[in-house]
Every structure is written in C-alpha cells, then in structure tokens.
Amino acid sequence: MIYELREYVAVPGQAAAVHARFADQTLGLFARHGIDVVGFWSDQEDSDRIVYLLSFADTAAQRSAWAGFQNDPDWQRVKAESEADGKIVAEIHSRTLDRTPYWPHETIRAAADHD
Fold first, then answer.
1. Which of 9, 71, 89, 97 could pair with 3 as two cysteines, CB 3.0-4.6 Å apart?
2. pLDDT tens digits for 38-51?
3. Whole-model pTM above 0.90?
4. How far is CA 62 from CA 1, 41, 43, 97, in A?
5. Spelled out in words, what is the top-level CATH class assigned to the domain 2-76+84-113?
6. Cα angle for residues 95, 98, 99 (degrees, 5° grid)
7. What sections of 72-104 are H helices per DSSP?
8. Do 57 and 1 meet the contact criterion of CB atoms below 8 Å apart?
9. CA angle, 109 as apex, 114 and 41 as ends, to 5°?
10. Is 103 helix (H, G, I), strand (E, B) or coil?
11. What's the pLDDT score for residue 38?
C-alpha cells in the first residue's frame, strides 16, 4: 500500500470554489477511477490550503488511476467549467509516501474515520 499526500493552494478568494468542485464532482470521479480518499483537511492558518490523502495498492495502480482520471472527458468538462472565469488552483503539491513498518494502516484509516 502506498499513499499520496496532495496539497492544493487555491487562487486567493477561490477556496470555496475548489472545495465545491471536490465535493460536487471530483470525489465521484475519483471513485470511478479507483482513487481511494483517506481524508481531506483544511489548513487552520491558511484557508486557501486544502490537503488530502489518497491510498493505492501500489505505484502501478496509482499511475493507472491518475491516467484514467486525467483522460476522463467528464473531468475535463468539470475542470473547464469550474475555470470558465479563470483558474481556481494556484499550486498543486504531491508526494508519494510508503508506509513505515511500525505504523499500521488500520491506525491511519481509523484516525481518519473519527474526524
């Protein structure tokens, strides 16, 4: 199992639009492409920062899921519609993480489920 930690920095004043795109469209598309969301968080000190964690069986599954998502005509339409008046995301940061042997996966999922 691998994890992908992603951070989006919204264009100033556009955080609500980024959250709406995730809530209304992107999460359903993630599910369609096997992108398993562990959780989403907002930065308490910077409301323009949105952080989320994904899990994948392995790197091949991660690459395949993202390729399917990026090439999905529904995602391309949603992205274009949400950016009709300009970009809503200024920066995207992504890190792929391997689980350490001393921290069990169940603990991560349980913690996310209690938030």
1. 97
2. 999 999 999 999 99
3. no
4. 10, 21, 25, 12
5. alpha beta
6. 130
7. 73-82
8. yes
9. 65
10. coil
11. 94
